[in-house]
Design brief:
single chain; alpha/beta; 5-stranded mixed sheet; two-stranded antiparallel sheet; 8 helices; 7 strands; 11% strand
Length: 223
């Protein structure tokens, strides 16, 4: 994140901590992580959900969005996608999170409130401002809970629907690949939903990763 975005993020965090209904779900002991920014022209935005990994003891080690440090399973996953798009993760990608604070537990493990709905109003304006520096740059979203927080106008919240899912997919049948149009999401951009890295092990996504990435490439280049 830029210095300005960092300052705004800290201001949002301060507001959250002053809200008694929301503050109890925020872990303010860990500093906010910064965005990852490639060294050249940004041609792709990778959007994650939030920095709260399941391993509580490892959360304090996350100082950069998606923990993109040049190694690890997620790095390799995203680097492979970028290669298929003829991009370089080290150069052409800006990565950030929708929800920038750490939670006391991963949001999908919090049942008391709908974390995604209740925290969206606080973080969405900042995210919209943050990505405005990259005009018309498309977005890859990671994971289904995040996708659910992005869709609007009746668009599907299921990643598999954009990857051509049909009940008989194991027989080789599929619907056309899709993406979120700007009018179908809260960010007003082209968004290509991807499963988060652990889910790519599932046969459905694993078998379609290369062909969906090729589809994304065609759309990005207007072909």
């Amino acid at each position: 994140m830029s210095t300005s975005t960092d300052q705004k993020a800290r201001a949002v965090l301060k507001q959250l901590l002053q809200d008694k209904d929301l503050a109890r779900f925020v872990n303010a002991d860990i500093p906010l992580s910064t965005a990852y920014c490639g060294s050249s022209e940004i041609k792709l935005i990778v959007l994650g959900q939030d920095p709260t990994i399941k391993n509580a003891s490892g959360r304090a080690q996350i100082t950069i969005a998606l923990n993109l440090r040049g190694y690890g399973a997620l790095w390799n996953y995203l680097a492979g996608i970028c290669k298929g798009l003829q991009l370089d993760l080290r150069q052409h990608v800006y990565a950030t999170n929708y929800y920038k604070n750490f939670f006391i537990r991963p949001p999908t493990q919090i049942d008391e409130i709908n974390i995604f709905e209740r925290f969206a109003d606080r973080w969405l304006p900042l995210l919209q401002d943050e990505i405005s520096q990259f005009n018309n740059v498309p977005i890859i979203s990671l994971g289904q809970p995040l996708l659910s927080a992005l869709v609007r106008n009746g668009a599907s919240p299921l990643v598999r629907d954009y990857w051509g899912y049909t009940p008989d997919w194991k027989e080789g049948k599929r619907r056309p690949y899709r993406f979120l149009r700007p009018d179908e999401n809260v960010l007003g951009r082209l968004i290509f939903p991807f499963p988060h890295q652990p889910s790519i092990r599932k046969q459905f996504y694993r078998e379609r990763l290369m062909s969906y990435t090729a589809f994304v490439k065609r759309v990005m280049h207007g072909k």
